[in-house]
Amino acid sequence: MPESAQRSEGRPGRPGRPGRPGRPERPGHPADPAADTGAVKPATLRPARKEDTGALDLLTRGSLEIQGRLVVASNATLYCMVRDGDREAACVYKPVAGERPLWDFPAGSLAGREVAAYAVSAAAGWYLVPPTVFRDGPVGPGMCQLWIESDETVDVIALARSHDHAELREMAVFDAVVNNADRKIGHLLPDRDGNLYGCDHGVCFGEDYKLRTVLWQWRGRSLPATAIEALRTIQQALTGGELCAELNRWLSPAEVEATRQRVELLLEHRVHPFPPEDWPAVPWPPV
User: Fold this and answer.
1) How many C-alpha atoms does 198 have within 13 Å on its Cβ side?
2) I want to staple 22 with a disulfide (CB 3.0 to 4.6 A). Which of 28, 162, 259, 274 is the partner?
């Protein structure tokens, strides 16, 4: 689901109208620990990872074998093993043929949006989305994403409510960029190595502002310096080159332009956006 933005007074505008993420709090406002008294441990942008390159190659070249289906998913979501010679890994395969029609997204476009979300995350240096490719498979073309084994000792509800988790805050900024309409608690994947990933990005990159997430705890607060750096990187990448080409492959020209506008507005105002006023701000169910 979609994008847009907010009126100059800092609240979401009518669907389809670009706007502003919201007014920043006054300097030193006690509700703004990021602006910044060191309340949040700074995150650092992660360099391009060799393991992503290897995973992308395996996901693209390997043979897919369906092991089962995730029955709680809205769309057909298949748990698979992907193998290429002596390499193998678990992955999620979402064929386009299994996508449920939605009123606000073109039919057959969700898999490509997942690939676009990975491209944005990687271009920014966040690597919050597991390696994701578009390929043919046993049930036709679709999205194939590396399976992340979650650390079951982590309380994801408590994690989602955290105010001082650097990667979670990066996730909130990423969601604002891609206009994620479905950031549920269950879409947060803390792995056993201490990394945080997010999954299920099929309803991102819409034109109208419909950000729907459980991560509103930083609304109106100043963006961390690392977020500004990442946003500048994305802004530059959207002027041309690999990221621009990748987004144009999966999104409409209007959706690519809306993504540019969201990045520009975030850089202009340097605050986390406010919830929309004409759209449910939290997905249901939130978990």
Assistant:
1) 34
2) 274
User: Helix, strand, or coil here: 237?
Assistant: helix
Alpha-carbon gap, residue 253 to 262, rounded angstroms = 14
Which residue in this structure is represented by tokens 């961390």? 224
Closest CA to 263 of 223, 229, 239, 232: 232
For the whole model, what pTM was predicted? Answer: 0.84
Bridge partners, residue 183, by sequence: 213
d(C-alpha 190, C-alpha 85), whole Å: 29
CA distance 228 to 119: 18
On whether the CB atoms of residues 249 and 112 are closer than 8 A, the answer is yes
- Over residues 62-82, the pLDDT tens digits come to 999 999 999 888 899 999 999
Tokens of 237: 């990448």
Name beta bridge partners: 143.
94, 134
Q: Report the distance separating Cα 255 and Cα 78, nearest Å.
A: 28
Cα–Cα distance between 192 and 10 in angstroms, integer? 39
Q: 82 is written with which tokens?
A: 């992907």
The average pLDDT across 147-162 equals 97
Q: Which tokens belong to 189?
A: 């994947």
Strands across the sheet containing 142-146: 63-69, 78-84, 87-95, 142-146, 132-135
